[in-house]
Amino acid sequence: MNWEISLAIISFSFLVLAAMIVLTLMQIIRTAKSVESTLQTVNGRLPDILADLHEIIKNLRYISVVLRGRVEELTAALEKIQGLIRFVDVLKPSIDTPGLKIFRTIKAVTKGVGIFLSVLKEKEQPSTREAEPDAEEVTGA
């Protein structure tokens, strides 16, 4: 009797194992079909993807060349500006000569004298405020 029960358990185990193997093989077949379908789709679209990729690379190369040219132009412009700044720095001491300082002093003195004369002129003229009646006197307040 033990022998028959053991044989039944072993037979049932092999049956379950065979069922699991069949199910696993069926799933592997389904997965393989799905992968094959996906692979066909990718292979069908691959030429378009590669064409787009080539177009993108071509555009990136063009942008790179244009950008490099612009950077070189900016570098040249900055070098010119730096040269101009150096030139101004060289000329600045010769511009700030004593003659220029004297000219500035004369201009300031002329302006000061003009203001002094206008103030003096106002004081020499009779005050128009004293001759005019106050607003309070006119309104009677």
pLDDT averaged residue by residue: 85
H/E element order: HHHH
Number of helices: 4
The span between the termini is 140 Å
What characteristic shape results from the CA principal axes?
rod-shaped
**Helix vs. strand class:** mainly alpha
Q: Let me know the number of strands.
A: 0
Largest sheet: none
- Oligomer type: single chain
Radius of gyration based on Cα positions: 51 Å
Question: How helix-rich are the residues, as a percent range?
Answer: over 70%
Low-pLDDT stretches: none
Strand content: under 5%
Could you give a short description of this structure?
92% of the residues lie in helices and 0% in strands.
Description:
Helices cover 92% and strands 0% of the residues. It has helices at residues 2-95, 98-124, 128-131, 135-139. It has 141 residues and is mainly alpha-helical. The mean pLDDT is 85. It contains 4 helices and no strands. The relative contact order is 0.02. It is rod-shaped and about 145 Å long.
Topology:
Blueprint: H1 2-95, H2 98-124, H3 128-131, H4 135-139
For the structure shown, list the relevant keywords:
rod-shaped; single chain; mainly alpha; 141 residues
